[in-house]
Amino acid sequence: MKIAAAALLVSGFLSTTYAAIVQTCPSPGICYSLSIPDSTSRSGTGDIFFQLTAPTSLEYVALGQGSGMAGSNMFVMYTSSNGDNVTVSPRLGTGYDMPLYDTSTNIEVLEGSGVSDGIMTANVRCSNCDTWSGGSMDFSSSSAEWIFAVKAGSSMNSGDLDANIGIHDGASSFMFDLAQARGGSADVNPFASTTDGMPVVVSGSDTASSSSSSSSTGNTILLAHGALASLAFVGLFPVGGIVIRVANFTGLIWVHAALQILGVVTYIAAFGLGVYMATQMKMLSAAHPIIGIVLLVIVVVQPMAGWLHHRLFKKYSHRTLWSYVHLWNGRAAIVLGMVNGGLGFALASVSRGTVIAYSVVTGMVGVVYIAAIVMGEVRRRQRAVPDGEKSQRRDDTSGSEENMPRTEHNAPRNSSSRLGWR
Ligand SMILES: *[C@@H]1O[C@H](CO)[C@@H](O)[C@H](O)[C@H]1NC(C)=O
Question: Where is the Cytochrome b561 domain positioned along the sequence (predicted)?
Fold first, then answer.
């Protein structure tokens, strides 16, 4: 009994002395936190503290009070004019138009804010966030609805509180558990590293869009997504495209087909993880996921186009429309996939080293891939020269995507039709 009483006393003491922070991280690296001092929690009005953190690969992130953009009391964070700190612009949501700077909101950007290691951080105190033109929030209640929005893009580097901001790529509403955010003094910045006492971080419960507790899972998913998609577009697809042009052995076409089908399966897995993350972040309108969808369509059509090309080539001994669909679909997919990997890195907060490693490997694979295409086409043209035709019988199929053992059926009638060289 004594221990229980002591525990009760200590927990009561803790809850009034130390700040508590609730946090929601809709995506790895993007987090929104809230802390409500005891005095504010008791009266329902007064100072509150909140924090926004996001990678500088985003143009801005915004946190807002309310259930939707219309009538929301919003705080938009972007890099300051010289890029080494952040600008926090209070704005009033109007619906679908750009939210405009609201001069009546009293906020202060606090110590600990800034840009470091590619992460923007804003620690903010708001002294009149309980009401605004368009709404109100009772800080003594147990939970409240908030919204967030993000936009990918280069740093704004603007100190202008009224700066033009483009439409967000993703936005969502979520619940902040205000009861869990309760504690501490209104005089102490709970986000400063030198707070007396450790703030308690609680993940935002009832979050419509994932929570901080899953951020390590989120990182694993992000890592798996990037690794699988890179394996498909920087590994399997180009390697399959290279071997079909440079190698020459019986059954090569099946090695090519197997590599590419493995690539399609790998990409579908990466795509599934990507869709999961994009829906969590409500970021389906950004360029990266849209290109990802286009790529899915291309890579799913590609085996069918390849099969038709193969059948028709065997039948007519020259390239058909499907041959060109297959060739250019494949080339476009590989280039687009490599570029989309870069766009994905811009969305996620990955290290500079990862970006450099990806760029170097992708660049090297790209060079070998293009060289293989050029080599394959040059060989086709050489074979189209009738003189060397007979003496080079053995070489006829090498470096050709039509590489397959020849049969009576597809034996050449004349050189131009055999090689499909127009
Ligand atoms: C950013 O600005 C805030 C508010 O003026 C300040 O407290 C903070 O120290 C600044 N951060 C850096 C890194 O200069």
Answer: 188-381
